[in-house]
Amino acid sequence: MEVVAKRDLLKDRYGNYYFVSYAGKDSLTLINAALYYAFKEIMSEELVERVKAQYPNDVACGKYFADLVKTHIEKIEKGEIPGNIYDIEEVKGKFDLHMKPIYDESFHL
Fold first, then answer.
1. What superkingdom heads the lineage (predicted)?
2. Sheet holding 9-11, edge to edge
3. How far from the centroid of its chain's Cα atoms is residue 65's Cα?
4. In terms of residue numbers, what domain contains 55?
């Protein structure tokens, strides 16, 4: 199993998706996929305009980032972008997993 950082996703039994932010020989660092997208964006007028153009009504910021994850998943499944989606339980048997907490002072993505 070859898990690639900043490309592959892991899915848990609850339906949550995680980006692999770091992949070592025996360990992976994971971050919730919606947070991964949220921490890559700078709050700006451009972001606000993109969100307003995408949704006819006001939406919470989380909806926008969750939809970015959904689009990423769909593109992987259709083969439009490289990457795989692995079951987190399967991956646990081969790698040590380190989860980035939601409230982390040092998100370096």
1. Bacteria
2. 85-87, 9-11, 17-23, 27-32, 96-99
3. 9
4. 9-99
Decide if 2 is inside a domain.
Answer: no
Is the pLDDT score of 18 beyond 80?
Answer: yes
How does pLDDT run across 71-101, given as a tens digit for each residue? Answer: 999 999 999 999 999 999 999 999 999 998 7
The pTM assigned to this predicted structure is 0.83
Q: What's the sign of the alpha-carbon dihedral 74, 107, 11, 25?
A: positive
Please indicate, yes or no, if residue 83 is contained in any of the structural domains.
yes
| Residues 46-68: b if buried by 16+ CB within 10 A, e if exposed | eeeeebeeeeeeeeeeeebbbbb
